[in-house]
Amino acid sequence: TGLVVMDVDHVKNPHEVHGEWLKVHGDLKKLGILLVYITPSGEGLKIVFKARQEWGNLIDNQHEMAKMLGVEVDESCKDASRMSFICKEKDILYIDKELFTYENKEFGERYDAVYRDGHSQGVKEGVRSEGVRREEGKEPLCFKSIAYKDIIAEYWRRTGGEPQEGERNVKLHKLAVNLRAICDNKREVLMQVMPRYGLTDAELLSIVESACKEPTKGSKMMEQIVASFNLSKEEESGAANNGQCSMVNVQSQLDSWGTQIESLFPDYPMLKDVCKGLKKNQYPAALIVAGAFGMTLMTRCYYRFYHRPEELRRLNSSALIIGDPASGKSFATRLFKLMAAPIIKADKVGKDAINAYREQMRTKGANKEKPKKPKVVVRVHPARTSNAQFIQDMVNAVETVDGEEMHLHMLTFDTELDNTVTVQKGGSWIDKMSLELKAFHNEEDGQAYSNNESILQDFNVYWNYVYTGTPIALKKKVNEQNFGSGLATRLTVIPLPPTNFEMMSRESTVDTESDERLKQWAEKLDRMKGELSVQKIVDELYDWTARRMADAAENDSKADEMLLKRCAYHGLNYAAPYIVMRHWAEMHQEGDYWCGEFETDETDWRLAELIVNMQYACQRHYFGAMAEAYFDNKLKDANINVQRRQKTIEGFQRLPEEFTSEDVMRCFGSPSNNAAQVKIGRLIKDHLIEKCGEYVDNRTKKAIYKKIAHMF
User: Fold this and answer.
1) Domain limits of the chain?
2) Quick check: 132 and 195 in contact, CB under 8 A?
3) What is the CA radius of gyration of the chain?
4) CATH number of 655-707: 3.40.50.150, 3.10.310.40, 1.10.10.10, 2.40.340.10?
5) pTM for this structure?
6) Integer Cα distance of 134 and 136 in angstroms
7) Is the pLDDT of residue 53 over 90?
8) Which of the chain's termini has less CB crowding within 10 Å, N or C?
9) Torsion angles phi and psi, residue 96, rounded to 5
């Protein structure tokens, strides 16, 4: 409801305390208080007041209100596991009728789920509740100088995150079973270090007792976690906020990115619905998938970039979500069905027309006049589509917007990247590698085949695609043999975390409202047109790229330079749909379309910066080694070529600008004058030197030569 219940214990004179509040504050309603009553013990007060979102969650609100009233709060009211007894009418000291009708839906949407699941820790600095109980004033318990709370935090990260609704007891039991391996199976230690998430002492003790009764054995998980804390800080977490990330530790960044995405929920209306039902470390993948579908809906929009700003850039996406089998990639199918619905609905008209035409062709007699093939728009294509059909539909997908013809983006979504790679390797008639490469910058392509079905013309490629797949499938898609094609830097590749034997959260209700909101936003984005007011974001991305480029130069890393260059496009493209939705109130309707100018701010840059950091980190994780090998091999090839001509080139470079045959013998190491004359003859024929004079030595006339070109 958005109401907070605060419990104040050990109050010997409740009436006097209440009277002091009135003297100091006057009307309690000004503080948001709606009810004050004496607890059944007679020595306590309950206060019910309106939660303030800027204060934080329930426990944050309790501490803030306690400061205002000058009391100590009892945190037992911090989550839904605690009961509150109703009072007698005579014990009510203050009540406002708004108590019975008040509701703060925004606060409820933000904190309801975590509150009811016992996740009541304060979200603001300075709040005392930490989820792990320890004695006041004492240092946290440690194992080999590592705080148990840090070990537990790392355990949650490796096992899919903190407990969600319906899985608290099961996860806490597994944690206790692992922790006892480094607690010598001592119940009293476990009771001090275990997080409670709303459990009473009796409930937690039951879990600890059950864990300690199991056969004693070590924990490989705990061994690995403790060992990881011995790594250097740089090896453990990589560089922090500048997008740099260890090539082996990008998985550890998923939780951090998920937390940042969660913090943006209140600012971006669709983000929470996009991430519905997922764990926090899956949020980055959901952000990218929904962004890809969103920018495809916004196919009638464009922007200007810092490189060649005279060109109008389109919103292009080439997204791959990579995870092990059964790692939760099905969320992408949900987003596709909901967000691509407007495009699929429009395609149905074109598909019906083509199917009717084909039926007529099958039923017409040999001497009958054949019907004319209709020119239709079909934008969504499966992976198994011939290039002739795909290109024909791409050329046909044109709309007149503001008096100008605009090509609309094609869209392909497939849940099995391995299947996509396999079906597109049947030959040139279906292999789409060249189209995938040119789609990122809408580059020009063309075809000229002799068959009647294929169009004969040049065209630009407008195609967004989203695939989910396994690491093995990604290796087939991008490998050492084709890395030099440039496809890797055009791809947005985001990992899904391993499941680590964790069950998915059990869902007992169908959230139709969330799905409906996604559909409504999809309809709006599908009607968006015009130039996007994102110049401030472009300027920030230029500065971000310049900072990273300086890092690459300092490290003398050609690989980082290559992987960095296109990151800014990704940061802007995927952020664009969310930014437009955030500023939708500034849009206006022009005929069938929506458009308008808006002012981006620091919040919009936070989103774009998060995405560009994710892109750079994932590029280095998946393709960093390939990039290094690419430049190493390139350097080796160059050295080999230089080595074959090195002696000749060095000899030529040692020659003075004007020289004689004696100079040639000295510089090239020729054994005799005859060998030097042969060398001179070759250099003259290669137009590298020419004769420029003569001189007499010991009554013998000798030639003088000069260089007229460089030898390479």
Assistant:
1) 3-116, 142-230, 239-316+337-341+512-633, 655-707
2) yes
3) 35
4) 1.10.10.10
5) 0.59
6) 6
7) no
8) C
9) -120, 135
